[in-house]
Design goal:
By secondary structure, the protein is α+β, with helices and mostly antiparallel strands. It has one domain (2-87). It is built from three helices and four strands. It has helices at 19-35, 38-55, 78-87; strands at 2-6, 10-14, 57-58, 69-71. Strands 3-2-1-4 form a four-stranded mixed sheet, covered by helices on one side. The chain starts with a strand and ends in a 13-residue tail after the last helix.
Length: 100
């Protein structure tokens, strides 16, 4: 089980068996970011976040355990996500470790 945090929203516990699906969605998002495609970026980000919400179990707001993954919120722009990836040195790895 891994913990993912969607910025501004909260944490979700993700079962190990669902990580592969998230890795695939992350690869789509990473490709959109790498190509600078705003047209592909927004739906790819939305799909990844929707999948986290669907397969994950929301953690209580009082849970302060560390998150293995930090995901942007749905309102972040392509340039903001590029900066997030660069700051975290994940520009070639994607948001989900091993997903790129």
């Amino acid at each position: 089980m891994i913990t993912a945090r969607i910025l501004g929203e909260g944490q979700y516990r993700i079962p190990d068996e669902d990580v592969k699906e998230l890795e695939e969605l992350d690869a789509d998002l990473q490709e959109a970011v790498a190509h600078g495609s705003q047209t592909a970026f927004a739906p790819a980000l939305r799909a990844l976040l929707d999948a986290v919400r669907r397969v994950g179990t929301a953690s209580p707001g009082s849970d302060l355990s560390p998150s293995a993954l930090i995901l942007p919120d749905e309102d972040m722009t392509l340039s903001q996500v590029r900066a997030l990836l660069a700051d975290a040195d994940l520009i070639h790895e994607g948001l989900i470790r091993g997903g790129g």
